Amino acid sequence: xxxxxGGRAQAPWHLWxxxxxxxxxxxxxxxxxxxxxxxxxxxxxxxxxxxxxxVDSFPAxxxxxxxxxxxxSVLGAILLLIRSRHAAxxxxxxxxxxxxxxxxxxxxALPATMGGAMYWIMPAVIVIAIVLQWLYARRMTGAGVLR
Length: 147
Prior knowledge:
This protein has six helices and two strands, in the order ββαααααα. The chain is mostly helical. A hairpin with a 2-residue loop joins strand 1 (about 5) and strand 2 (about 10).
């Protein structure tokens, strides 16, 4: 059980560990998003041109869902580190953005262009990571660690 200070639970060591790992993980996702949408040649050197043509053809709402999935996860990690109860909500919004983005991608030729079934490993890992971050933030809110 966590000790309390001023009626609030002290942050356990794992909050900082999870928060820092979450920020690094989601920060990398944000970097990938920026490098992809800005067409960074070095970053995209191993991406088939046909795949980038598909990404470039995404409708604005699909790009917005992708951006929400990425940037709201970064926000969730920051909120976790500053011990805000809004971290769980941010991760939930991020999850919704990611699921919408990946659902749209499933309707395009992008998965086949990027390796077929192997393409879905990273999206699955990302969705699982967001779910775990959301569950963790909910648990820390319930424990009174996030305020």
